[in-house]
Design brief:
Blueprint (H helix, E strand, L loop, with lengths): L11 H10 L13 E4 L5 H13 L4 E8 L5 E4 L5 E2 L5 H13 L8 E4 L10 H5 L5 E4 H10 L3 H10 L3 H10 L11 H8 L12 H8 L1 H5 L3 H13 L4 E2 L1 H12 L6 H12 L18 E8 L2 E9 L6 E9 L6 H21 L3
Antiparallel strand pairs: 1-3, 2-3, 2-10, 4-7, 5-6, 8-9, 9-10
Helix pairs in contact: 2-14, 3-6, 3-7, 5-6, 8-9
Length: 354
């Protein structure tokens, strides 16, 4: 999504020291009413205890879904609690766009014209390479940029192509993932996080977004003001999802239940080539482990959601990790929490095949 440089980068060593000082490195098992075990595997409670232990180190709230696709065994931590999706909401947008492709309403080779009004200052290939008004890209190109690069301009173009928030959210309800709601373009979401009350119906001009995210404006945000902005954003019900709903969506994508074979394969392939989040789900897995995933980052939220392919025909594991309200000093500092949870999930299902 968007990650301003408000907080300084924290090394893993500094994080470990901070957690030690906070008294959060205990290896004792934790018990919580937030944990739900799926299936009849009695040992999953041990994985759950380990995930809860790791989750404590986030200094925030962590939502997890870890479900072995082939057996259905798994667990949920805060499974029905809502978390800001940040850029993981690009997966629901992609599903609606590809549904339109399957229905013949859109074609992957249709051209999208990028207007001057579509541009705002943000990370992404479109802002870097396609800034000339009138540039044209295919739906396929834009979809690829949205998911692989987490390009925010690409996302807003496809949000418009999909018909806006209502068709996307309605699609989530129709496919059984009603715990997912999509409400805003990335432009509006970022502006809202930074205190603007703009809406999709009354979109904020690019110049105003650029002013809000400029280094000068960001440098004037005090810690107290940032805390206020984050509290308001964390309480906002828009563009949220539950771990259960996101896991349901990923399962139905992987099992070809909601898209055609061609569209399902395309979506999974693009997510498998995701260029963001090397230190999240992938961060502690054995090198070369295939992971089809999508990351998300904004404010006190750091996410990664996807499907991990296990070695030696051990199957696949849906792995959703949402972090919100974290008081760690940076989004980078939250990434080891995601990486350690993913590794715990990976190891469990490699060595406990059921």
């Amino acid at each position: 999504m968007y990650r301003p440089k408000i907080r300084s980068h924290t090394t893993l060593q500094a994080l470990a020291i901070a957690l030690l000082l906070a008294g959060l490195t205990s290896t004792g098992a934790l018990a919580s009413d937030h944990l739900e075990v799926l299936g009849d595997d009695p040992n999953l409670k041990h994985l759950g205890a380990e995930i809860e232990r790791i989750a404590e180190t986030s200094l925030g709230k962590v939502g997890v879904a870890a479900i072995h696709l082939e057996s259905g065994r798994g667990l949920l931590l805060r499974g029905d609690e809502r978390f800001p999706m940040a850029s993981t909401y690009k997966v629901p947008i992609a599903v609606e766009v590809l549904t339109r492709v399957d229905e013949g309403k859109t074609a992957l080779d249709d051209l999208i014209t990028i207007q001057a009004s579509d541009h705002f200052v943000t990370h992404g290939a479109i802002s870097d390479y396609f800034y000339t008004p009138g540039s044209k890209l295919t739906v396929h190109n834009v979809l690829d940029m949205m998911l692989r690069n987490s390009d925010n301009i690409a996302t807003d173009l496809l949000f418009r192509e999909a018909g806006g928030a209502k068709p996307i959210t309605d699609r989530m309800k129709a496919v059984g993932a009603s715990g997912i709601r999509v409400d805003r373009t990335t432009r509006v979401l970022i502006a809202n996080w930074l205190g603007s009350d703009t809406t999709v119906a009354d979109p904020i001009p690019a110049a105003e977004v650029n002013r809000l995210v400029s280094p000068e404006a960001m440098s004037r945000i005090t810690r107290q003001r940032l805390a206020e902005l984050n509290r308001a954003f964390n309480a906002d019900p828009r563009d949220n999802a539950t771990p259960r709903a996101m896991a349901t969506l990923l399962r139905k994508i992987w099992q070809r239940e909601i898209l055609s074979e061609k569209s399902s394969a395309l979506l999974i392939d693009i997510m498998a080539r995701c260029l963001t989040g090397a230190n999240r789900l992938l961060g502690a897995l054995p090198p070369g482990t295939p992971v089809a995933h999508k990351t998300g980052t904004v404010g006190e939220t750091t996410n990664d959601v996807g499907v991990i392919t296990l070695p030696d025909d051990a199957g696949h594991v849906i792995t959703v990790v949402f972090i919100k309200e974290s008081k760690l000093p940076s989004n980078d500092a939250m990434e080891p929490v995601i990486a350690q949870i993913a590794r715990a999930v990976y190891d469990y299902f490699v060595f406990n095949r059921g």
